[in-house]
Amino acid sequence: MFWLAIESRIKPMETCLVTGAAGFIGSHVSATLIKNGHKVIALDDLSGGFRDNVPARATFVEGSIVDHQLIEKLFQEHKFTYVFHLAAYAAEGLSHFIKRFNYTNNVVGSVNLINAAVNHNVKCFVFTSSIAVYGAGQTPMTEEMVPMPEDSYGIAKYAIEQDLKASHEMFGLDYVIFRPHNVYGEKQNIGDRYRNVVGIFMNQLLQGQPMTIFGDGEQQRAFTHISDVAPIIAQSASLPAARNQVFNIGADVPFTVNHLAKVIAAALGSECKVKHLEARNEVKLAFSDHSKAARIFGQREKMPLERGIRLMADWVRTYGARESSTFKDIEIAKNLPPSWAVAVKH
């Protein structure tokens, strides 16, 4: 009877699809799911991630969420219980200039997954949105605010939020939506020149270059270590109280980009060299309220900025600098920041 009592508390292994699993947040969520006893099918097209980011115990599939035939095949073969959708091209500023690419990857690809999730009776669809959906609203940003995104990336994310709500009402698909912000940490692609300012700064310093800051550097963000978001995302699908809800997750205290540059330079033992570029069109102050997440997932101690940056800096020293590639398929060149100017295909 004792053994029967123990076995009754053991949940069977759930099969989870994680998209973007070779990327930054996706790889950490995959690792947490595996640690928690789940089976993970890790899907990624390796356009922004790395094969060695994928946990060894995950089953890796190289492919794109835009490929609806591949998506259908995977859902038929694996009978997923949960979907964790983290695949996206998350360059907010650049999204103005790559609208077709943005909407194809971030909307059409997401819809392929939603279709399959409905047709194959997935129990919960977990989606990582962004605080980009809020636009230049009041701060701190709360889930009750009406989103007014100001860039194509935020528009795409909000469209999928709305589609998940409609799919729940029409088909009964349960979902959890997260709006993380300014996440940094180990396994981040520091070679991406268009997104993730912490990685950009570290990569520049490793190459002996000054850190480039758009405008005066007084724009404020709350920079979030990966350890403050990945465990919550992984836990959410199996937590009934989180179903069909939207949550802000991330750090609580905003800092200026100028302050961030000083912290990063100190962590890498480098001189704080900064080059200010022409200001771009971006929200000046952006941070969110996380009281709703604390109520559902519990109050958690969060990683202080200096400690989190040191942890990432230690990892970056091991892996070294990465070459920063340019985005080749710019669709609109008008008003493109000079530092992003590349050959435009017509």
Please characterize this protein's 3D structure.
The protein has 346 residues and is an alpha/beta fold. Helix content is 36%, strand content 15%. It is built from 11 helices and 14 strands. β1 (15-19), α2 (24-35) and β2 form a beta-alpha-beta unit. α3 (68-78) runs parallel beside α5 (99-119). Mean pLDDT is 90; it is low at 1-10 and 342-346.
Descriptive tags:
346 residues, alpha/beta, 7-stranded parallel sheet, 3-stranded mixed sheet, 14 strands, globular
Set down the secondary structure blueprint.
Elements: H1 2-9, E1 15-19, H2 24-35, E2 39-44, E3 59-62, H3 68-78, E4 82-85, H4 92-95, H5 99-119, E5 124-128, H6 152-171, E6 175-179, E7 183-184, H7 197-206, E8 211-214, E9 220-221, E10 224-225, H8 230-236, E11 245-248, E12 255-256, H9 257-267, E13 274-277, E14 285-286, H10 291-297, H11 305-319
